[in-house]
Amino acid sequence: MADTTPQYGVLLYYKYAQITDLDSLFSFYESNCNSLSLLGRVRLSPHGVNVTVGGKLSSLEKHIAAVKSNALFEGTDFKLATCDHPVDDKVAKECGFTSLSIRIVKELVTLSSDPLLKSPEISNAGRHLTAAEFHSALQGTGPLLEKDSPTCNEDLVLLDARNLYETRIGKFHAPNVETLDPGIRQYSDLPSWIDDKSEQLKGKRVLMYCTGGIRCEMASAYIRSKGAGFENVFQLFGGIQRYLEQFPDGGFFKGKNFVFDHRISVGSSDPNVIGTCLLCGSSFDDYSSRCRCAHCRMLVLVCDSCRMEDALYVCELCQKYGKGVQSVPSLENGKTQVLSLQEEHKLVSLDTKLSPQLPWSHGKVMNLQEN
């Protein structure tokens, strides 16, 4: 008997454009998404839209058709992927896939938390490269990037515009190509990192990538806004998702692509795991347990053997900047649970007031004790 269960899917797309009537666009999304029973996030700003929604595949296709009928969305890259229906309510809720959230916001992505930093003009964003062009650039082959010697990668820099917890489970790696991982907690930390590394980027051909492309738009424009010596900035069109569709064996991408929906991550046919458990260092790249840092709330990788119920952990960045066991708030009863390590201290607390995430370095689990 044929399976009649409707196929489920996830749709991602964004569009930078001047929107003069946000209220009308809000009404369209509210009506269309509710009528099609789509769940997820819709963000509208005077500068464009950013959408991640899930539902029946047929409903998502109808949504795409309706959006395409608006000339505002001409040229939009609709990234539609089939997947299983969410089965983990905790993950689905945390990712915003148990309801429909439509908001009007100031910015589609917050480039910086500094109110004095003016957002760059999106029209100055780096040139889009298709997955094939991006791949050729990393190979050092083909007529590329306005260079007389396209096979020379000495001045090529590969820049990951994602957060540390994302890069911990998957990233690009190409031989003889300098790769920069900012190691940031959140996207708004990227401008200050770029400022600090400006001399390292100046005069280079900068290849940028992120999950689906939207973060590279603003970040590449920020780099190019620095003027002379920062002109040659390029971005992977459609992000890692489009690259893996073009190169299902992974190509130069190793590991899994972290995604902000119930799927958590999407991999290639390559089974190799690059992530590691923050406590024991074993190969591990599954964020479905949603373990987070007790200080900054970034996701951390904790394998099944090391994980304990209601435990909290200190991420590698917090540890790097001196936060540890002593600085974690205690519970109302004054008790805290701590994993004591001989080489370094990795905190585990009973405080359950946590949220967002990140991973870190290796350690050895010792005994559990109460203070």
TrEMBL record:
Q: What PANTHER family has UniProt attached to this entry?
A: THIOSULFATE SULFURTRANSFERASE/RHODANESE-LIKE DOMAIN-CONTAINING PROTEIN 2, THIOSULFATE SULFURTRANSFERASE_RHODANESE-LIKE DOMAIN-CONTAINING PROTEIN 2
Q: Which residues form the Rhodanese domain?
A: 152-252
Q: Does the keyword Zinc-finger apply?
A: yes
Q: Which InterPro entries match?
A: Rhodanese-like_dom (IPR001763), Rhodanese-like_dom_sf (IPR036873), Rhodanese_C (IPR022111), TrhO (IPR020936), TRHO_N (IPR040503), Znf_FYVE_PHD (IPR011011)
Q: Which UniProt keywords apply?
A: Metal-binding, Zinc, Zinc-finger
- The organism named in the record is Castanea mollissima
Which Pfam families does this chain map to?
Rhodanese, Rhodanese_C, UPF0176_N
Q: What Gene3D superfamilies does the record point to?
A: 3.30.70.100, Rhodanese-like domain
Q: Name one GO molecular function term.
A: zinc ion binding
The superkingdom listed in its UniProt entry is Eukaryota
This one is known as Rhodanese domain-containing protein
